[in-house]
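Risk register update: the risk that structure generation would not scale has been downgraded. Supporting records follow, first protein first.
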Amino acid sequence: MSDTLALVLRLLAVFVVFLVFPLVIGQTEHKVMAHMQGRLGPMYAGGFHGWAQLVADGVKFAQKEDVVPNGADRRIFQLAPAVALLPYLLVMIAIPVGPHNAVGQALDAGVFYVLAVMGVGVLGSLMAGWASANKFSLLGGLRTAAQLLAYELPMLLAAASVAMAAGTLALPGILDAFHWWWVPWQLIGGVVFFTAGLAELQRPPFDMPVADSEIIFGAYTEYTGLRFALFLLAEYAGIVVLSALTAVLFLGGWHGPFGADGLGWLWTLVKTVALCFVVIWLRVTYPRLREDQLQKLAWTVLIPLALVQIALTGVVKVVIS
């Protein structure tokens, strides 16, 4: 098989995963929240265990009218959902799922690449809030900007700690250098990275930019139909990407107790799905943080913890060498 054909097949596999996994996570969230909170609605559509809920949601979004406000910046308004969604596809290309080059495209600066592109995804919310000609949408966009500025730094510092430990910025290289004793060693960084990622995705309890009780639905207030569905799909794609990155950087990715070579992709999948479940669990468990609480958590807790993790990594590296 030629190198070009192998690359095309890997990219096609990434694209299929991108189309399927976010929908599966969305369906799972319906079911998990239904069980945890006693919600009956999502358990009825289609009969057994509400299997058709996802289909019903898709039909509902497709039937809704596509409305653009009169005062909106039409081009930016229509482009925002794509800007929010597509960066996660580009990030998935660089995430290794198994040994022996099981990755869409290996990049030498993979850590910087995935973090930079994930930051672009957040810009979709900013564009939506700015272009909607709605004061509530604008306020949601401003909250998104403040949240992005606050949580991008601890996320980058936490990832830098792992790159320092492995001596490389390439994601496959980090997994090749991984040892099991890294899990407790990099635990602080893993918690910081995962928490900051939740905030960048605007997931509860960090959903101040979409606080429906205060600003209707933030930057997405004026969106209907399939454009609104794309923002939801971007959120679930972001959950998959964040969980997969956390698994790769801090939990060993395809490394498992046995059969890592043959079942490496399975270990990556299990860890990613487990973290996706944690994301849903946190949504059900914790109330929304106030804006001041959200900023305080980033600047006075997560950033100092990330710096402590980097210092610890430096000390351990010096001791080992």
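Supporting record for the second protein:
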Amino acid sequence: MKLTILGGGGFRVPLVYGALLQDHAEGRVTHVVLHDLDPARLSAVTRVLAEQAAGVPDAPEVSATTDLDEALRGADFVFSAIRVGGLEGRANDERVALAEGVLGQETVGAGGIAYGLRTVPVAVDIARRVSRLAPDAWVINFTNPAGLVTEAMSRHLGDRVIGICDSPVGLGRRIARVLGANPKEAWIDYVGLNHLGWVRGLRVAGRDELPRLLADPDLLGSFEEGKLFGVDWLRSLGAIPNEYLHYYYFNREAVRAYQQAEKTRGAFLHDQQARFYAEMRNPDAPAWKVWDRTRAEREATYMAENRESAGAGERDEDDLSGGYEKVALALMRAIARDERTTLILNVRNQRTLSVLDTDAVIEVPCLVDANGAHPVTVDPLPDHATGLVCAVKAVEREVLAAADSGSRASAVKAFALHPLVDSVNVARRLVDGYTSVHPGLGYLK
């Protein structure tokens, strides 16, 4: 089975390959093709994978190419993990937004809109190529903003593109752990959009254990989200929000923390990964050791500004191991081998949430089998959550309209309608700022 990874020179690819090395069942991946526009990055990651595979019998073969069509042709699965504009683009997204006093985070607010505007045209081109060169392939989208990009690709690939994110999985795992339950045996009632969802229940053996957590202040304040949001706010909500909702519920504090930080997250990762790839130019450098050291630093500093502003302290060691690669592999196995499972995924709404149309991509538990991912029926969202979901989905639709038409007016509208952008004039200045630093936004007229 052939797996193509787009963005194959990306830093997190070894996480995916490591998960593949642990898969020895029938119908497993036998050939991994890495595609990237940067040959030096491809070379660095290929070296890391070679050291990972040392001594592992029947490790999947790895090849690398800068030719997109060659990479896609004949693929059974495609993991799309591209970063249009690189980490320099992300740093610019943050800088332009913060200069206007609004959030510049990668997927939330102004930064997420800017990232989407330059990523959607590229993702759409990939979707069209997949439909032509590998029409039977399943595309698993890692690329952020995951929900928006998945929806853009679904217009050309239908339900054969599925978006993934490890945030809901990590949240469910933390809740189950603090309740003393086995995460593998828990049903997580999670619903929303990517990076905008809520856990409303956690059922073990048919019983909802979330009320027990919400009723116990000590228990509720003992894990990441309790520390981040505060016990009183979680009890007011009656649910546990995805960590990214901290940017909405505590926006002023988050913006202030980012403005006061020595470096934005994008700038930090840009410099950190530049050091990694520079070190990898030394043929004698221990590739795996250098990569793993860099990974540990990256994970430990995740959302550091938010945790500092909330007084949440350092991340729990159990939360430093990532997890999105495990979601991707579980999804791929379920489809390839018809191993039925339940996963929280980004898929087309169909009739799951009545407040959104059938083609809107949402993030909900799905039953997965050989025919793909099927969203399960969920209860309606409460009014406060419905308002946010509908507002952000309207923004995503304006981003898609701008990317499709090249309309600058649609781009301004996307920024202006976002709940975290407080002025149409700010929206206009954001578009001016982003088009001045991103050549890839030159299509906006």
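The CA atoms of residues 174 and 223 lie 7 Å apart. On this basis the risk owner (M.S.) recommends closing the item.
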